């Protein structure tokens, strides 16, 4: 790998999951709880946080790690993970130069705390601080995802006016969503031919807007909309002119952070180079953003709870600093579209569309899809519902195919899911279950054909396979013991091994005294009983989770 190809960024984002528990027979634990790798907690996971690295030069990518969480990740935990993962990347020999995340409150707080730590470190070392995050002597630039920033501008504008070019003694200038609504209505009703055919109700009408779609936000804050408003004489002149001016400004600003080719699609929608127009534009843009503020639509007082303008300023400043760093690695150009969350959002889209369309997969489904996508090199070039405008996506840094020497087996022992829909409260249920377990054990290649084992597990007076009284009573006792222990171990790593150990310690298994298969017989019985119990327990918990979800939707 060339030195320039080692220059990379670290990005992270969260994805919603369906609360659901599943038994992983390979790892002998239950998926669906909070899982931080080195520790698990007794909370049902409904989010997954994924970290991905991406090459700044060629755009290669690799999903590094994921964590299952109950709710959005807590700030202190996020900071710990960011620092730990950054250290691993740096120690691997890669050159980590940037962090990329969305502008959510927890990310803002985490970035600010990391910057404060770095500022104190520089002060202690008697060095100047330039806004970097320093980890293992590596200066890393924090950037906020531009597609998220353009969505935030649109979302703030829905309910507030944007005042700009604020100067003492000057006439106030406001951009208003009301003008955008009027423009859309005029285009629908007053034109022989629509001038904005791509603009629909999902772009403009507040209760129909798809707020998570970047494409909709970018299209409504575009040259097409700005030009229509600017040239339409029937719109209120000053208010329309002001709104058009701010729309055209954000169209150019988004273009400047969205280029991916050396040949300009639009003046600023191009890769950054030494003499590109980005730098003089950004200098003017920062000054203009500093003189903007969102205000209440009625009283025109400033809205204090919006940080999106500051985040734009921070990201533009970060891009300017990043270019200085990249020149030291002999970069001739930089494709700014690489510096966003599109690759990770694309990955999420592939997870959701894997196999069947699944908007919120379970932890088990996510983990299975994650591994399969790594093995298959994330081969799908684009995802139908990808939340981005990205037309390019880098290749996977490497795949896991080289590590596979055998067929991938299912993680679940589906055979043991027999009759799990009925409660274990009747004698015939215990008998049926024990008959099934006895058949599984006696058909095992290590035991098959042993008359002693058959006499221990089955009633030899019956013509067909019927469990012995010892087996049925052992199963009853095991169920009581497992029920008393389950709540304390259900969420931990290797929970099944812990439950098996409890059965070995506390159950009287001396009746399983086959001279030839004593160890195997006990091992198989304990394993099957524990697996059956855990699967039954998971089904019961999932019924509760499903019922709760239905109640929440009412």
TrEMBL record:
Recorded hits in Pfam families, A to Z, give: TNP-like_GBD, TNP-like_RNaseH_C, TNP-like_RNaseH_N
At the top level, the lineage of the source is Eukaryota
InterPro entries reported in the protein's UniProt record: TNP-like_GBD, TNP-like_RNaseH_C, TNP-like_RNaseH_N
Provide the Transposable element P transposase-like RNase H C-terminal domain boundaries.
339-371
Coiled-coil residues are none
The protein depicted here goes by the name: Transposable element P transposase
Transposable element P transposase-like GTP-binding insertion domain: residues covered? 149-261
**Start and end residues of each Transposable element P transposase-like RNase H domain:** 2-114
